[in-house]
Structure formats: structure tokens, C-alpha cells
């Protein structure tokens, strides 16, 4: 539980489902005030109603690509006391609805979709970080950027998504060098049983993948322990914090 005189404020994007939702739930239980956002208003409203039983929540719906929406998020965080944590979790696989189709090869990737992929996965997080930096600096805060193993491994069909996450990784490393008073982490959460992951593998059984909630303790360990900035794997974090003999 947060023991500071004023509860800390976290901004979490892509917070209506999957990893973003589970992390927001855990931050609420830890006493954080929340600004959560996602593109689907009904799902976001349900998440906000649940978390409002535990903490103060602002939940403007919209896309991180939208300039005015990012301004609303920054204003909401300031209204709650100023952001001490930004979680850039919102992502897109291709920038368009796959509709059951396989992930596109780079040779066939529609360029408007590729542009949207980079806007959502790279430019949106950077732009939102720029807006929130004065608040984060004031609270000795942290930025948690959700990455992927596709940023460092070459998987057929994952060129657009992987390239965007590699760019986010590098931007995270540069931000860490430029903002030494903050913590900046790019974290690969590993494969998870999410709607997004299912869309990448249409018709396949992904029930063997772990649920997003299993990754959250590793991320909370980062937020609570504030280790050095860097690129990390959630699996390694979980191994490092597991009890002896577990």
C-alpha cells in the first residue's frame, strides 16, 4: 500500500483489457490514483467503475495518436496531483483489423497500416511522455514502456510490429540517458493469452499462454523497487523475485 501523504498518480494506456487492465487493477489495490485510457468507451467505463471502488479514477476514452486526447490525459493527471508513473501499454499489431487474416509480410504490408502501427506504438507514447515529463520530473517518476520479443527477434509476419517496438526500445534507452533522475524501463512481458495475441494467430489454440495477471507481479516489482533504467524481460524479473525453491 502507498504510504506517501498524497497517493501517487499513474497514467496507463490500453487499460480496458489484457495487461493494461490487470496492471491498473493492481495499482489501484496499491493505492495509486489512476488515469486510464483506451479506445473502446464501454470497456473502459467498466474498468473505471471497478477501480473506482478502490481509488480515484479518471478515464477519458480515445487514441494516443490524437493530440487533443493526449492533452486530456495530461490534464487529468495534473488534476489528480501529477503523474508519478506513465505506462505506455496501448499497441496495435498492424494498424488495421486483421479480420482473421495472417500477419502481413513486409512485402505486402499496407503502408497506411504501417504508418498507423508506428503512430500508435512509437509516436503516441513519445508524445504522451513529452507532455507528462514535467509532472514525472516533479515526482521523481518512472516510465514503463511495454515492449515485445518481436523487437529483438525476427519473426515472419511481425516486421511492422517488431520494428515499431524496436524503435520504442531505443527511444526508451535514449530517454533514460537524457532523464537520469527518472526511471525508464522497456519491458518484454512475454507471450500472453490476450485478445491481441489471439488476433495474431487466428484459429489457433493459445490456451497454453499465461494470463496477463501472471505478469503483473514482475511489473509491480519494478514500480516498487525502482531498479536502474533499462530493457528487461518480465520472465527474468519474476525469476529474480521468486522465493528460493519456488
Task: Please give a structural write-up.
There is one protein chain. The chain is an alpha/beta fold and 246 residues long. Helices cover 44% and strands 13% of the residues. The chain contains eight helices and seven strands. Strand 1, helix 1 and strand 2 form a beta-alpha-beta unit. The longest helix has 28 residues, at 111-138. Mean pLDDT is 90; it is low at 241-246.
Top-tier CATH class: Alpha Beta
The tally of beta strands, per DSSP, is 7
Largest sheet report: 7 strands, parallel
Could you name the CATH topology?
Answer: Rossmann fold
**Number of DSSP helical runs:** 8
Helix/strand order, N-terminal first? EHEHEHEHEHEHHEH
Q: Could you state the CATH homologous superfamily?
A: NAD(P)-binding Rossmann-like Domain
Spatial ordering of strands, largest sheet: 3-2-1-4-5-6-7
Q: How far apart, in Å, are the first and last alpha carbons?
A: 25 Å
The low-confidence parts are: 241-246
How many structural domains does the protein architecture include?
Answer: 1
Q: Helical content, roughly?
A: 40-55%
Q: Using the alpha-carbon principal axes, give the shape.
A: globular
Q: Which CATH-level-2 architecture?
A: 3-Layer(aba) Sandwich
Instruction: Provide mean pLDDT, rounded.
Output: 90
Estimated radius of gyration: 17 Å
- Overall structural class, as computed from helix and strand content, comes to alpha/beta
Amino acid at each position: 500500500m502507498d504510504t506517501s501523504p498524497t497517493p501517487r498518480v499513474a497514467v496507463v494506456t490500453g487499460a480496458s483489457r489484457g495487461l493494461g487492465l490487470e496492471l491498473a487493477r493492481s495499482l489501484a489495490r496499491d493505492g495509486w490514483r489512476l488515469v486510464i485510457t483506451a479506445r473502446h468507451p464501454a470497456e473502459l467505463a467498466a474498468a473505471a467503475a471497478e477501480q473506482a471502488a478502490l481509488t480515484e479514477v479518471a478515464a477519458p476514452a480515445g487514441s494516443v495518436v490524437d493530440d487533443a486526447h493526449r492533452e486530456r490525459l495530461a490534464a487529468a493527471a495534473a488534476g489528480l496531483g501529477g503523474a508519478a508513473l506513465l505506462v505506455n501499454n496501448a499497441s496495435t499489431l498492424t494498424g488495421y483489423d486483421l479480420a482473421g487474416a495472417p500477419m502481413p509480410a513486409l512485402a505486402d504490408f499496407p503502408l497506411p497500416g504501417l504508418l498507423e502501427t508506428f503512430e500508435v506504438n512509437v509516436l503516441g507514447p513519445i508524445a504522451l511522455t513529452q507532455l507528462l515529463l514535467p509532472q514525472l520530473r516533479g515526482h521523481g517518476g518512472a516510465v514503463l514502456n511495454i515492449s515485445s520479443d518481436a523487437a529483438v527477434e525476427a519473426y515472419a509476419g511481425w516486421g511492422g510490429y517488431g520494428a515499431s517496438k524496436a524503435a520504442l526500445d531505443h527511444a526508451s534507452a535514449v530517454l533514460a540517458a537524457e532523464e537520469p533522475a527518472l526511471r525508464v524501463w522497456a519491458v518484454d512481458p512475454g507471450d500472453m493469452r490476450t485478445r491481441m495475441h489471439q488476433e495474431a494467430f487466428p484459429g489457433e489454440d493459445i490456451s497454453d499462454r499465461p494470463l496477463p495477471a501472471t505478469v503483473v507481479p514482475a511489473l509491480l516489482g519494478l514500480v516498487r523497487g525502482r531498479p536502474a533504467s533499462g530493457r528487461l524481460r518480465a520472465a527474468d524479473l519474476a525469476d529474480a523475485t521468486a522465493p528460493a525453491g519456488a
